Amino acid sequence: MTALLPQRLRGLASLAEALLTPHGADRYLELLDPMLVRREIRGRVVDVRHQTPDTVTFTVRPNRAWQGFEAGQYVRLTVEIDGVRRTRCYSPCGPGGGDLEFTVKADPQGLVSRHLHATTRVGTVFGLSAAGGEFTLPSPRPERIVLVSGGSGITPVLAMAHRLVAEGHRGEVVFLHYANAADDVLYRAELAGLAQRHRGFRVVHAYTHGRGGDLHGFFSKQHLERAAPWFRDAETFVCGPKPLMDSARELFEAEGLGERLHTEEFTAPPLVFDTSAAEGTVRFARSGRECANSGMPLLEQAEAAGLSPEHGCRMGICFSCTQVKTAGRVRNARTGEVSGEANEEIQLCISVPVGDVEINA
Known about the structure:
Helices cover 23% and strands 30% of the residues. It has 361 residues and is of the alpha/beta class.
C-alpha cells in the first residue's frame, strides 16, 4: 500500500494539471510563491554583497527543477524590467553544488547589468535556465592548468578553480587575474583561501593601471612566462574583456599552441543574408526613427539608423540585444523560423524583418 502512494500522488498531480489547462498548475502556484513552480527553474536571492562599487555579487537558491552545472558553464538569468522580461547569460562562480553565486559588473550602457546592480535584494526571484556552454574542464584533468581572467570574467574560471581544489587535483594550477588596480580585484580572499588549501595552486595578480601587484600592464607573453613558465605544456582557460581574449588568442596561435587555449567565447556558423528581396519599413518606436528594410539583421539596421542598442555576441547566443517587437514579422537567421506575434521578445542580431516591422527601441 505504501509503495503505491508516490504513484498515486503523481497521478493526482497529472490530473490536477489537466484540470487546470490551459494555464497549468504552475501559473496558479506562482501566485502563491514563484518558487513553487515545478516545470520552470527559478531562484531566490539569499545574499547580496558589493565587492567593488561597480559590481554586485548575489547568491541564488534554485528550486527543485535545477539540475546543476559543470564548472565554467553559464546560466541564462531572466529579470523583469518595466514589465518586460530580459534575459542575459552569467556564469556561476561556486564549486557547483547547492546555491549559485553570480557577480555582475554594471555596464554604463547595460540595461540589465545596471538594473541588477541597483535593485537586487535578498528575496528577489529570478528565472533561470539549465546550464549550458562548453567552456569546461576536460576529463581526465590536465596535469598543468593556467586560468586567466580579467575583471568580472573571473566567474567561470573561479568555478574551475573551486572544482580542481575540491577534487584534490594533484598537478599545478596558476590563476592569473587582471584588474585595473588593487581595489578592483574580485574574490581576493577566496583566491588566497584556495591557494592555502592546495599546494600546487598559485595566484598571480596583474594590475593594468594601478601600482603594486605581481605584474603590471596588459596580458603578454612575458606575463605568461613569469606566471607559468611551463604554459606551453599546459591547458589554458581564459575569460575576460575582448582585448584580453584577443591577445591570448594571438599569442597562442603565434606559439603554435592554439589547441591548448580555451576561451569563454561563443562560436556559431557564419550567417548569410539575402538582401535582394528585402521590402517594407523598419520603425524604431521609442526613438521615432524609420528606415527602409535592407534585409540585414535588425541590430545592424538600428545601428545604421544612428541607434546604439545594447548587444554582445552578435550571433544570437548571449541575449544582450533582446528587444520587444510590437508589430510585424521577423525571420530568425539561424533557424529560418518566421514569427509574427505582437509584443514578443526578439534578438536583434539574428532577427531579419519580413516586410514592415516595428521595434520598441
